[in-house]
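Next comes this protein:
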Amino acid sequence: MADKPQHRPPHGMEPYDLSGQDDLGALSQEQQERLNKFKTKTRLENERYLRDHPEVECLIAGFLSDVLRNRPENIKDFAADFFTDEKLPDTLESQLEERQHKFKQNRVLQKL
């Protein structure tokens, strides 16, 4: 039987192989290392994308806020209505402006 990988997965990610009694032994050490590098690279790319596109954060935060406030019975219909609302672009624009304003305020406060 192949050597069972002993590894530390990237921060915040679960290991594929558990390196214990329940270890599947499905990946070689090299495969596990490549998988961990791929996970880390993907996570960094995702974080970079989200930093470059703050509108994604505003969309998700707005949607979750509305879901928790309204607690709809049919989440699929609610999501469809939310994301096809003709006022959404204007709402998103004002949220982005408010976000930018808060960032500027925080920078000023940090300098004090």
Notes: The CA atoms of residues 95 and 101 lie 10 Å apart. The chain has one domain: 30-111.
